[in-house]
Amino acid sequence: MKKESKASILLGAAFLMATSAIGPGFLIQTTHFTSILAASFGFVILTSIIIDIGAQMNVWRIIAVSEKRAQDIANAVFPGLGVFLAILIVIGGLAFNIGNVAGAGLGLNVLFGISDQTGAILSGVIAILIFVVREAGKAMDRFTQVAGFVMIALTLYVMFTAQPPVGEAVVKTFVPDKIDILAIVTLVGGTVGGYITFAGAHRLLDAGIKGKESLGEVTRSSVSAIGIASIMRIFLFLASLGIVAQGLAIDPANPPASVFKLAAGNVGYKMFGIVLWAAAITSVVGAAYTSVSFIRTLNPLFEKYSKWLTIGFISVSTIVFALVGKPVAILILVGALNGLILPISLGVILIAAYKPKIVGDYKHPMWMTLFGVVIVLVMAAMSVYTMYTEIPKLFA
């Protein structure tokens, strides 16, 4: 593999994972919780970044060294476990993708004034075309990179326009006024929960970047992915904080649109349309690709027709939104549900790390294992707490 193409694939995998995370739910969750917690939301972001890195490094390394997809690893740990994990991932991916399609439709509505449904259908067609082209992997990598850079650049502009109190944000990141468990679970779930943490790892596997000799590159790519998503999260948080600090009210019906409009007027509102569409369409692509990658090895027919399964996945998501729609509370709920999937999937990966039939003679670093075990226990406890105490409040 040429050096240039390998570097491009590593960057593409990082952006695929990051842009899969940066969807409509990501935008809504970040602005929603900033409006509630203000500068203390910085602590939630810092905590989620630490958890994200620990989860991501463990998952990507074991997938690379085993040279197997996550569902095949799970089946090797315990027969049938891979099927169960695949079902969880696909259901979560489909639920999230309906929200992604909704976001894409809303983005085109903001930009061109067309209906949400029409915008969603057009976006679904664009996402499908990416998988129809001959070199779908390369097209997907390039598309997610360009869209990712555009999102970050526009959000950075709005952040500066909002003039946030950066000093206060730094202080409250380490000494918060309040610690919000729902916010932590939702952010982690929306960044590395469900299908998202596997997006880049499966992409690298498909591209042939695997084995012990590739572990250094895989680890760097995994951390880069969290870095890209976190930069976007921090910029959006500071932009939102600038609005809150000015005493302006963020509209709970559409928190991120409100932030962009209050910070930069109608121009900002149009920028939001671009950011929302880019965030949504890349998440549609990432969710479809990764969800299908979880079932394609379960049956030879799934492998043979994986491209059409991906197209079908996008089509179903688009049709469901066109018929039903997706409110803000549901996007927060799905993020929290994906946070519940994380301790299951990461727990399976950590068990696999010590199975010679899966990883051969590879020795997983003990510090990484302990890091992973702590994340499994903490996320399991916080997710159960959230499901029973916090989620019902969203729908009260």
Automatic annotation (TrEMBL):
InterPro entries: NRAMP_fam
Keywords carried by this UniProt record: Membrane, Transmembrane, Transmembrane helix
Bilayer disposition of the protein: Multi-pass membrane protein
Location of the protein in the cell: Membrane
Regions that span the bilayer: 36-55, 76-98, 110-131, 143-161, 181-201, 222-249, 269-295, 307-324, 330-354, 366-388
Protein name per UniProt: Mn2+/Fe2+ NRAMP family transporter
Gene source species: Fictibacillus halophilus
